[in-house]
Amino acid sequence: MAPEMIPVRRSDDRCRSGIPVLQLRNRISALLVDSDRSSQIAQSSFLRYYGVDTQTASNGLSAFVLASASSSTFDLIIIDISLPVMNGLGVASVI
């Protein structure tokens, strides 16, 4: 089932541009793979703000291990191309 977006009513329900803030009705999970810690923080904060459960990995091998774990299922995987140990394209091809 595809996630559905719904308007959310709260005190901060509009961003600075005046566009209503939307939040996912059904929780989805994401794996964010980036070796740059500041990028991880910014991107995971953005995803969590919209209700996305986020896990992070710092290299391709860690991402592969997380994605292939029997208890992990991700609706979305965001991978940086340039990663240590195993690059983003390598991770994408084995997942």
Brief summary of the model shown:
By secondary structure, the chain is α/β, with parallel strands linked by helices. It has three helices and five strands; from the N terminus they run E-E-E-H-E-H-E-H.
Layout of SSEs?
Layout: E1 5-7, E2 22-24, E3 28-33, H1 37-49, E4 52-57, H2 60-68, E5 76-79, H3 88-94
Parallel strand pairs: 3-4, 3-5
Antiparallel strand pairs: 1-2
CATH architecture classification of the domain at 29-94: 3-Layer(aba) Sandwich
What structural category arises from helix and sheet content?
alpha/beta
Mean pLDDT: 78
Largest sheet: 3 strands, parallel
The H-and-E topology, N to C, reads as EEEHEHEH
DSSP strand (E) fraction?
15-25%
Helix content estimate: 25-40%
Number of helices: 3
CATH topology-level name of the domain at 29-94: Rossmann fold
Strand order of the largest sheet: 4-3-5
Molecular shape:
globular
Cα-atom Rg, whole angstroms? 15 Å
Count of distinct strands: 5
Low-confidence segments: 6-11
Question: Quick one: CATH superfamily of the domain at 29-94?
Answer: Response regulator
The CATH class designation of the domain at 29-94 is Alpha Beta
Distance between the termini: 21 Å
Structure characterization notes:
The chain has about 100 residues and is an alpha/beta fold. It has a domain at about 30-95: Rossmann fold. About 30% of the residues lie in helices and about 25% in strands. It is built from three helices and five strands. It has helices at about 35-50, 60-70, 90-95, and strands spanning about 5, 20-25, 30-35, 50-55, 75-80. The strands form two sheets. It has a three-stranded parallel sheet, with helices on both faces. A two-stranded antiparallel sheet has the order 1-2. The chain is globular and about 35 Å long. The two termini are about 20 Å apart. Residues about 5-10 have low confidence and may be disordered.
